[in-house]
Amino acid sequence: MGKLNKMAGISSAITYFSPTKLAPPVPHMGARRTKREQQFSISQRASDMTTTFFAQPYNTSAVGFYFSSTAEFAAKSASHIDCYGNTVEEYEIQLNEADDAELINALQLDQSSVAQYFDEIEDMSASEKVALFYLVHEANYCLNDAIAKIDEVCITTCSLKDAAAELFDECYLTSIPDAVRNYIDYDSLARDCELNGDLAEFRFGSDTYTVTNASCI
After folding, report:
1. Which residues are registered as beta bridge partners of 1?
2. Burial class (CB in 10 A: 0-12, 13-18, 19+), 93
3. What is the distance between the alpha carbons of residues 186 and 125, in angstroms, rounded to a whole number?
4. Which residue, 5, 168, 173, 202, shows the most beta carbons closer than 10 Å to its own?
5. Which branch of life, at top level (predicted)?
């Protein structure tokens, strides 16, 4: 059973399922995805909360301001002066309130990148935001590279063990005799998949996700 538990090259059994499109399948395995990947769609939650930041001047003689858009930041900062009449130019960007608070905190936005949130990230689908969080917070990509790779991330809404078991069952179980199936060690399989970097589990919000092509990203 050792050979069964070590799914060498499990990445070859995983199709690139992205939040926005399905890329060509990996050779030899056909368009095979886990059932949970096929069903994976996170609905964008409606909310009346406006994302608001606070621009805290590094100049201690100036008072900061709130803003909720790139245009508002540009307008307020353009005419911003301190109590001595000097122009204020540099700010620490602090999150005030947002539905995307966990994601924004992971992005570590600053004065040079906060515009990207409003221009590129705020209106992303919920599934794209999950992928972006993984790339920045778990895979340590910089923001620009993470945005470029969002479509490459294959995500399933379950634990790593469940994802590994489902991939194994869909790819190999039909070729294994019934008398042998009860001896498959799914715990060891999941551990090997994690140690080999094929699968990666993470939490975002209140949900657990597994990236099924972690070694390819």
Report:
1. none
2. buried
3. 33
4. 168
5. Bacteria
Task: Assess whether pLDDT exceeds 90 at residue 116.
Answer: yes
Q: pTM value? A: 0.77
Residue labelled with tokens 């406006």: 50
Q: What is the largest CA-CA distance in the chain?
A: 84
Compute the half-sphere exposure of residue 140: CA atoms within 13 Å on the CB side of its CA. Answer: 0
Report d(CA 83, CA 153) in Å as an integer: 49
Note whether 2 and 199 are within 8 A (CB).
Answer: no
- Report yes or no: 16 and 23 within 8 Å, Cβ to Cβ: yes
Report how far residue 6's alpha carbon sits from residue 183's, in angstroms, rounded to the nearest whole number.
14
Share of the chain above pLDDT 90, in %: 71
Q: Would you call 180 helix, strand, or coil by DSSP?
A: helix
